[in-house]
């Protein structure tokens, strides 16, 4: 499943990045904090967070390799200089692809221990000087930057085993990486240490940290609110229960897919990379693997 999804994601993304001149749009999340995404709906990788200010410039993830120059141009436009720090939220190449470019422009890359280990073991991601994080943490680390306290914390075995999210306390903003696929079926990477149980717990943790005014810089999908995360969690809990009910009847995986237990979520949540069928098969695998 992991290899299939990776091929779908990276092949489509690289083709689009090479065939069109992708640029970045920005949304203001809070004063000095932005979410950056491909302009006009173009896919440039996962959502990127940007913190600007007089002291330092911080990026949360850096998109795909082919769109790195476009992202650098957007950072220069908004911040006036390259990033000083990159915080990678997880290992996937649509969030770490431009590490080397930004490192060559002076950025220090920070991530969870497990993210570095996985990148180090992958020749495609361990592509040369600057690709790997040079500062790692096991549980949490806090940045005191631009009058902001940026609390970076590990989330266990959710999207992957190296997930991190960032709480900007003063701004009441959380950069969640791929713990939040707002209004989309999530990619739960079971082959990289992720789990459905961990993903649900991660959403619960983020919800518990939020209030009605908290804004989430999502990994995929629009800027989110606590209510949006609650809706996505309710969907995942119900979807898992629907699949489990059919497994309890001793139905095969193919028969469950044919029964389409997630049909009522298809129109809202199915998307190009995690279709209704892929989400169903992820839940089947999770429920039938020790």
Give the helix level as a range of percent: 25-40%
Distance between the termini: 17 Å
- Give me the secondary-structure category: alpha/beta
Residue windows where pLDDT falls under 50 for at least 5 positions? 10-19
Cα-atom radius of gyration:
18 Å
- Name the overall outline: globular
The first-level CATH class name: Alpha Beta
Compute the average pLDDT. Answer: 93
Largest sheet: 7 strands, mixed
Beta-strand segment tally: 12
Which descriptors would you attach to this protein?
290 residues, alpha/beta, Metallo-beta-lactamase, Chain A, seven-stranded mixed β-sheet, five-stranded mixed β-sheet
Structure description:
The structure is a single chain. By secondary structure, the protein is an alpha/beta fold. It has one domain: Metallo-beta-lactamase, Chain A, CATH 3.60.15.10. The chain has helices at 2-19, 68-79, 93-96, 99-104, 113-120, 196-208, 226-247, 253-259, 263-269, 276-288; strands spanning 24-30, 33-38, 48-51, 58-60, 85-87, 108-112, 135-137, 140-145, 148-155, 163-168, 173-181, 215-220. Helix 6 (196-208) runs antiparallel to helix 7 (226-247) and helix 7 packs across helix 10 (276-288). It is globular and about 60 Å long. The model is unreliable at 10-19 (pLDDT under 50).
């Amino acid at each position: 499943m992991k290899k299939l999804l990776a091929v779908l994601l990276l092949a489509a993304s690289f083709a689009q990045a090479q065939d069109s001149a992708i640029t970045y749009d920005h949304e203001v999340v809070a004063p000095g904090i932005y979410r950056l995404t491909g302009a006009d709906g173009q896919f440039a990788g996962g959502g990127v967070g940007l913190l600007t200010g007089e002291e330092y410039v911080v990026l949360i993830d850096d998109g795909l390799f082919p769109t790195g120059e476009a992202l650098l141009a957007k950072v220069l436009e908004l911040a006036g200089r390259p990033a000083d720090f990159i915080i990678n939220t997880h290992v996937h190449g649509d969030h770490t692809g431009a590490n080397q470019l930004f490192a060559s422009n002076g950025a220090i890359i920070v991530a969870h221990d497990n993210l570095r280990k996985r990148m180090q073991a992958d020749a495609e991601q361990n592509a040369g000087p600057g690709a790997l994080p040079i500062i790692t943490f096991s549980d949490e680390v806090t940045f005191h930057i631009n009058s902001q306290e940026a609390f970076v914390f590990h989330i266990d075995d959710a999207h992957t085993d190296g997930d991190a999210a960032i709480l900007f306390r003063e701004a009441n903003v959380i950069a969640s990486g791929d713990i939040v696929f707002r209004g989309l079926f999530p990619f739960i990477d079971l082959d990289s240490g992720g789990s459905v149980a961990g993903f649900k717990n991660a959403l619960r943790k983020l919800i518990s940290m939020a209030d009605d005014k908290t804004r989430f810089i999502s990994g995929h999908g629009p800027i989110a609110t606590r209510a949006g995360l609650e809706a996505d969690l309710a969907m995942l809990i119900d979807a898992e229960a629907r699949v489990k009910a059919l497994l309890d009847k001793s139905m095969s995986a193919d028969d469950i897919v044919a029964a389409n237990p997630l049909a009522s979520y298809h129109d809202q949540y199915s998307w190009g990379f995690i279709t209704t069928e892929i989400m169903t098969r992820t839940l089947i695998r999770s429920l039938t693997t020790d």
